[in-house]
Amino acid sequence: MMDGSDSMLLEVNDLQMHYPVRSRSWFAKPDYVRAVDGVSFSIAKGETLGLIGESGCGKSSVGRSLLRLITPTAGKVRLEDVNILDLSKREMRDRRREMQIIFQDPFSSLDPRLTAEQIVSEPLVNFKVAKGRELSRRIEELFDQVGLQKQHLKRFPHEFSGGQRQRLGIARAMALNPRFVVCDEAVSALDVSVQAQIINLLMDLQEQLGLSYLFISHDLAVVEHISDRVAVMYLGKIVEIADCHSILQNPQHPYTQALVSAVPRRHPSQKKEKIILKGDLPSATNPPKGCRFHTRCPMAMERCSTVEPIIKRFSDDHAVACHLID
Amino acid sequence: MSMISRIFGFCLRYPLVGISTLILLALLFVSLFAPFLWTVDPLQISPATRLRPPSLEHWFGTDALGRDIYSRVVYGTRTSLFIGFVVTLVSYAFGIAIGFLSAFNRFADTVLMRIIDGVMSIPSVLLAISLTALAEPGIWIVILAISIIEIPRVTRLVRGMSLALRDALFIEAAYASGTSTWRTLFRHILPNISAPMFVQASQICAQAMLIEATLSFIGAGVPPSNPTWGNIIAEGRSLYQIAPYMILFAAMALAITVLAMNLLADGLRDALDPKLNRGG
Question: What is the pTM of this model?
C-alpha cells in the first residue's frame, strides 16, 4: 500500500515548509523555522491517513501546504498525476473542487455576517455548480447529509452550538464533492460526546462519497478510531508510519512508544508503564543535529546525535526512522 | 405596514439612533425645501432694516447688511449637509481603496502608510487653509481640502481592521472554497468591518461640517457671499455684544447637527453589533 501504485490518490514527496523569521540585523543570514522538513507519504482512494504529533511539530503546515493555502518551500504534491505545486493560480483554483479542508475552530472558520445557507452556498456559487432552485435543493441535501435541519438555513453562526457549527463547516467542505479532504484538528475543539458524533459523520460521508482524508490530530484515541494508517510527526519530520493496528500494538520509534503509552487504558487491569518524556520540543529554527528526537529520547545512543536516521521499511506496511531498528 | 412597524420597533430599541435620525431627516428636509420654508432671498441686502432683533417679520433678526438671518441659516443647512455628506463619501471611497491596498500588499503598505503619516502629522486646519489658498475660493476646494484631511483616518481604520481579519480562519476558508480576492474583499471583509466604519462615518461627517465652519469663520472657506453657518458666525463675530442673535442661531444649528451626528455614531455602535442584535 505504501508503494506509488495506481490506487494512490495523493502522493507527497519531500515536502518542505520553511517560514522566514525576522533576522537580528540586516546583514545576518535570515533564519527559517523548518516547520515541515522533508515529509513524504501517500493516501489511497477512500483511505484515511491519521497525522499525529504534538503542537508545533508541523502537522497543520502539512495540511495547509497540500491545499496550497500556504506555499511550500519545496517538494511535490501529486493529486493523481498532477503536481499541484506546479499549477498556476487559476489552475489551482479549479483544483480546489477536488481538495477541501475542515478547520479546527468551528467558531472562527465561519463568517459571522453570513447565514448558514450563504456559507454553504459559497463554494457552489464560486464554481457556478448550481443556481436558483437547483442551488437551494443542493444546500438542503447537504444540510441533510451532515445532520442539520431545514430551519437552520437562515441562522447565523453564533446561533449554533459548536458541534452544529462543525457540521456546517463539513457541509461547506463537501459542497463541491471533493475527493480529498484535510481534517485539520476537526474535532479537537469539541466536547468528547460531540467529537464522537462528528467522527461518525465523517466516516459515514467517507463511505457514501468515497473520500480520502488526511486526519490531523494530536489525540491518538481519535486518530485510532478513524484512520486506516497513521503517520507520527516530530519536529517537521515523519518518524513512523504504519497501519493503525501496528502503530498501537507494536510501536517501534521511542517517540511513538511514549505517545501510545500516554493513551488512557480502557480497563484498569491493562496496566502499562507510562513513558514520560523530559523537556520541551526543541526549536524548529535550529533543530538538533542527528536524530531530532535524541535530546528527549530515553534510548538515545552516541550515533543518534550525529547521524540522522532515514525512514526505513520495518515490515510490510510499517516504516520507521530510528537507529534502533537496524 | 410591517416595514413601518419594524422601523418603529428598531427606533424604540435604539432610541439614540431613532432621535438622531429624526433630527438629521429634519435637517435634510430643511435643506431640500429651503425656498418653501417662509424664507426670503438670503443674499438680499436691505440697509433700512439693519441689525433688527428677532421679530415676527425676521424670526432670527437681521445682520449688519439687513439680510434675513433665518433665511441665511436655513440656506446654510444646505451647504453644511452637502459638505458633510460629500466629504464622507469621498474620504470613504479613497480610504477603503487605499486601506485595502495597503492591507494586502506589503510594498504598497510601506509607501502609502508613510504618506498617510506625513499628512496626519500636519495640523488639519492648517493643512486645509493652505490647500484652499492654492485655488480660487469655492465649495469644491473646501470639500477637497477636508477630504484630504479625513482620508488618512478612514485609511488607518480600514487597513487596521482588514489586517486583523486577513488572517482570520474564515478568510482562509473562503480562499479554500475558491473565492476570488475581490469577492473576499467585498463579501467577507467589508461587511465585517462595516460597523466601526458606519460609526466613524457619522463622526467624519460631523467633523467635516465643523472644519467647514472653522474655515469659513477664519475666511479661508466658502466665499463669504454664500450663506454657510461658518460665514454667518464670522460676520456676527464683531457685533456679537450688541447683536448676539447674529451668531446664536447659526451656532445652535451647527451644534445640534454635530450632536445628532455624534449621537447617531454612538447608537450605531450598539445597533450594528451582530452579537447584540436583538432581531429587527
Answer: 0.82
